[in-house]
Specification:
43% strand; 9 strands; mainly beta; binds zinc ion; 118 residues
Length: 118
């Protein structure tokens, strides 16, 4: 699944994603979306397109961490991190991400194990 186009509210990101991530991103409308995947690693993102600039950049977007704490959003489901992907040039939001963690390890939702956490 290399160089897959993933849509966000303000454009799209072209990234190298796994088949598993592609399944999460596919909401059944013929496009793949950024939000359900969780956080993408910066080195996996190849390009981004910004609606404001109307331009495709041959570089990953900026990753902006908005909040990192543990917030229980449902039984067994904890939101551990949320943030945005921003345009390199004008800083507008290309898309958002959320990383969830399940309290028990019986299943997985989003990127259950955030990379780079202490
Ligand atoms: Zn822009």
């Amino acid at each position: 699944m290399s160089d897959t186009k993933l849509y966000g509210s303000g454009g799209y990101i072209i990234a190298d994603i796994t088949e598993e991530q592609a399944k999460k991103a596919d909401l059944g409308v013929g496009k793949l979306f950024l939000a359900p995947i969780g956080k993408l690693e910066e080195q996996k993102m190849k390009k981004h397109y910004c609606k404001v600039c109307e331009e495709e950049f041959n570089s990953p977007p900026k990753v902006h961490l908005e909040e990192k704490n543990r917030e229980e959003v449902a039984d067994n489901l904890v939101l551990v991190e949320r943030g945005q992907y921003n345009c390199q040039k004008c800083n507008s939001i290309i898309g958002e991400y959320r990383v969830f963690e399940k309290k028990d390890d019986s299943g997985e939702i989003g990127n259950a194990k955030p990379s780079g956490s202490p």
